[in-house]
Design goal:
It is a single chain. The chain is α/β, with parallel strands linked by helices. It has 2 domains: 2-39 and 170-338, Dihydrodipicolinate Reductase, domain 2 (2-Layer Sandwich), CATH 3.30.360; 50-166 and 342-354, NAD(P)-binding Rossmann-like Domain (Rossmann fold, 3-Layer(aba) Sandwich), CATH 3.40.50. Helix content is 31%, strand content 21%. Helix 2 packs across helix 9 (339-353) and helix 8 (215-232) crosses helix 10. The chain is globular. The structure holds nicotinamide-adenine-dinucleotide. The site of nicotinamide-adenine-dinucleotide has 24 residues, from helix 2.
């Protein structure tokens, strides 16, 4: 069964028999299983001007395409690499290129949102240079270590910055749709969440990652850690192992397994392998939620078949007594890149203007994600439960 839900509108009524050429016997089932899904994030009424600090790959590929789609105006741009800033300004029609960070922060419009997208190692030195009391969206991760994350939170507090972190997977249209279904009670009580990425990621394209500690955890799986927290709350602990790959031994981990401890009745794990270089056939990339009365599976096509990507997928199943389980496919408009970036920036703008009193990825919340990521790193370094090596083989068996 196939349904379509555009991002900004959702059907509120099921089709009547007279409107439809579907046979009545099938319509009965259709009417029962069709559930309105609303994947629309909160947007500001009056978008504010954005000042970019750092305008590298992610700004080109996701921030600016998303802002164009959402009609969020980019007023100015500063990048340590001036040539890069000028190229980006020309390509995306940004009026003002600043030569220095000082120029950017002193000449920015009073109501501007600073959009900081530099490597995490730069944040502790950069953030103190922003004017006090302003709004800032910081690219993830919040520093490269928990220690840096704490420092960044202190800086934000002392400067009274309204600061959020760009953990934008929370606003991916398929995640918004899943959350909406779960909030409607469609799958009952959530007792299982699984995220798996078996893909090929060309890590060599991001040289700064080669030197980063626990690179895969802190720069990729951290999205999943943040997402898990947003659905399940705080785990009491984690078991984890990150592994490098023979083709990239200098990178500190590029395949990671995480088991979250949520007690005896709630299972959650994350499994990433970014070195599946064997074609598309067995690549997979999905988030799956299972509950007492149903399940949802979202396929994240973006990560597969790099750099072209594959289509996303969204399916849900609702159990009905006495019937075989069946899955419903839903077309959800938009994808993780770039659409989710409208949500993270939109949520900060909406919070600043007072449209909402919730800032989901505020730095204090992001610090908690960093604390879980830190536990994942420590668990991996700490090693596994040692297998008893004292077992002697009997010569007779
Ligand atoms: N949220 C996501 O999904 C996502 C995806 C990719 C990257 N990122 C994050 O975005 C950040 C940047 O990643 P990228 O892929 O764009 O990297 P990149 O290397 O392509 O770009 C970084 C840019 O920042 C500039 N820069 C570095 N230090 C600076 C400073 N102190 N002041 C001004 N400009 C400075 C560089 O000149 C460069 O243009 C990283 O922290 C990364 O983790 C997030």
């Amino acid at each position: 069964m196939q349904e379509t839900f555009p991002a900004k509108s959702c059907p509120t009524a099921t089709p009547s028999a007279s409107q439809s050429s579907i046979p009545l016997s099938i319509l009965g089932e259709y009417t029962r299983t069709m559930i309105p899904i609303n994947p629309t994030p909160i947007f500001p009424h009056a978008p504010r001007p954005i000042i970019s600090i750092g305008a590298g790959g992610i700004v080109h590929d996701a921030h600016y395409p998303a802002y164009q789609k959402a009609n969020f105006p980019v007023a100015g741009i500063y990048d340590r690499n001036g040539e890069r800033a000028r190229m980006m300004a020309e390509k995306f029609g940004v009026a003002q290129v600043y030569d220095t960070l000082h120029d950017a922060v002193t000449q920015a419009p009073a109501n501007a949102i600073f959009d900081v997208a530099v490597p995490a190692s730069e944040l502790v030195a950069l953030l103190p240079q922003l004017p006090n009391g302003r709004a800032v969206l910081i690219q993830k991760p919040l520093g490269e270590t928990l220690e840096q994350a704490r420092q960044i939170c202190t800086i934000c507090q002392e400067k009274e910055l309204v600061a959020a972190v760009n953990f934008q997977l929370r606003w991916a249209p398929f995640v918004l749709a899943a959350r909406n279904l779960i909030e409607q009670g469609v799958i009952g009580d959530l007792h299982d969440m699984e995220i798996r990425a078996t893909v090929y990621t060309p890590w060599h394209l991001w040289p700064f990652l080669q030197a980063a500690p626990f690179a895969e955890i802190m720069y990729h799986s951290i999205h999943y850690i943040d997402l898990v927290r947003s659905f399940l709350g705080e785990p009491s602990g984690v078991y984890a192992k990150t592994t490098s790959h023979p083709s990239l031994p200098q990178m500190d981990g590029s395949r990671t397994t995480i088991i979250f401890d949520y007690g005896n009745l709630l299972r959650c794990n994350v499994e990433t392998n970014h070195h599946h270089a064997y074609g598309l056939r067995h690549q997979e990339s999905y988030i799956k939620w299972e509950g007492t009365t149903g399940a949802i599976k979202a396929t994240m096509g973006l990560l597969m078949n790099y750099p072209n990507g594959e289509p996303d997928g969204f399916e849900y199943c609702q159990l009905h007594k006495g019937q075989e389980p069946s899955w419903t496919s839903v077309n959800i408009d938009g994808s993780w890149f770039p659409d989710a970036f409208m949500g993270s920036m939109g949520s900060l703008m909406a919070y600043v203007e007072g449209t909402t009193d919730r800032l989901p990825t505020r730095v204090a919340d992001a610090l908690q994600t960093m604390a879980v990521a830190d536990a994942v790193c420590r668990s991996s370094r700490g090693g596994a439960t040692v297998v008893d090596s004292d077992i002697k083989e009997s010569p007779k068996h």
